[in-house]
Amino acid sequence: MVAPNPLFRGGWSWKKFNATVINDIWPEVFFFTLVAVMVCLVSNLTSVNLGISNALLTVLGTVLGLVISFRTSSAYERYQDGRKMWTAIGVASKNLTQMIWIHAQSDRSGIEALQNQTDIEVAVEKKTMINLIQAFSVAVKHFLRDEPGMYYEDLYPLICFLPRHVNTHLPHEKLPLWHSHEGFEEAATQVETTQQESLNGLQIDSTGKLGSWPSRGRRSRRSTFDPESVLPRVGSEHPLKPARNPPETRITDYIPLFRVFRWLGQVILRRTRSQSELGGKRLRKRGQGIDLVESHIPLEILLVLSNYSAFLMKHSLIQPAIASGITANLALLQDTLSNLERTCNTPLPFAYQAHLRMSLWLYLLFLPFQIYDLFGYITIPGTCFASFLLLGFLEIGQEIENPFNYDLNDLDLDYFCLSLQRELHQITAYNNPNPCDFLYTNLNQPFAPADRRGADELCHMGREYRYPDETSEAGMASIKRTLIHSWRDVDLKTRHIRH
């Protein structure tokens, strides 16, 4: 499957050029093209010939080509690994949902400790745990994007009911999931004041949102696309940041040369502006929101799910085989989370990247000197094309090395989470009917194509069932003959005749 071209999807804008590597490499391509122009003009307009021997051109070009190919392949392998691990999260989540929703016992009248539970309470219990399974994928998404904390529009409504304190009589002793260093409440209140939002009550706007941070490009399709509107509407003591909060597009994204000045400005600001430290930890502002150094949210959700599986096993609400399946899928989620963290936090060593880029720069710098004697003025477009080709492959490797961010070439984690959300809701929409209630009707023709009679007629015949030609022996022998004829018809009529 070829990825769709983002340049021609939806409305057109200059931002879509970020899907290519042109924005990142054009200054380098322009520089090496100017070097080629200089070589051609000096060699033609003066008595000095800047051409040199091209003996090393082939050898160095081959080596650089192999190294760049390895760089791109290793980056793409990380990209594919990220997609495979998200598939593993989807498979394990759906397996857990099916085991909890279908196999966990709903009738608990025979269990002394749970005999007072009503059917509604059991359904609420199961659906809540399935919502936590959905919350796990959302928490992993924010974790990989370096967005700590749980105060997000797509995450907080799913986990806000979890216990917050070690003991109810110790309100200041918060559990790790809800722990934030001192000072965050005050900072959040100041931000809310500027946004004219109150923390004293539930203020729900026309879309059902509560005290959220200003969104920067959260809706990627249309203004009516608002998947968070289907989540629970609950109040939050802190403002909720948007589910999708990509960084703003700056001029440095189109003119990389300006990144040097941006870096210099940041260095100067760091030296001239004192940053307050609260409780030994730094309170950092990032965009419109406040990042917190908090616990590992996906791990906390897995702990809750593991505790629920222990509850089911303790009261014998699931069969041993299902208990093993739940444990195995929870272990798969844990393993996948660790592998995603490894991929996200293990970049290619800087020394390798720097040496490869410097080697390529030197190769392209001396390229026009080596090919001028052979091509003349064609050296200019030749150098431009060679630099565009080699620098492009090198930049592609760096672009897809971490596929979990907001770049147009990264994995669409938001789509994966929403797709999983739809599938989990589809599973819980299954009402666990008794098979006898829908099997024996005239709409069911189990022995087709050899016998197209409905299941109700077949069951009415009972042991007197005969193959449709009415010459067969009644009973199972006739059923076996029917199945053989069905196989033969299917085998003959579904084979494709190759010419």
TrEMBL record:
The keyword Transport appears for this protein: yes
An annotated Gene Ontology molecular function: chloride channel activity
Keyword annotations from UniProtKB, A to Z: Cell membrane, Ion transport, Membrane, Transmembrane, Transmembrane helix, Transport
Location in or out of the cell: Cell membrane
Topology term for the membrane: Multi-pass membrane protein
Originating organism: Agaricus bisporus var. burnettii (strain JB137-S8 / ATCC MYA-4627 / FGSC 10392) (White button mushroom)
Protein known as: Uncharacterized protein
Transmembrane segments: 25-45, 51-70, 360-380
Primary localization class, coarse: membrane
Bias (Polar residues): 195-206
Pfam families (UniProt xref): Bestrophin_2
Annotated spans, Disordered: 195-247
GO CC aspect terms: plasma membrane
DNA-binding recorded as keyword: no
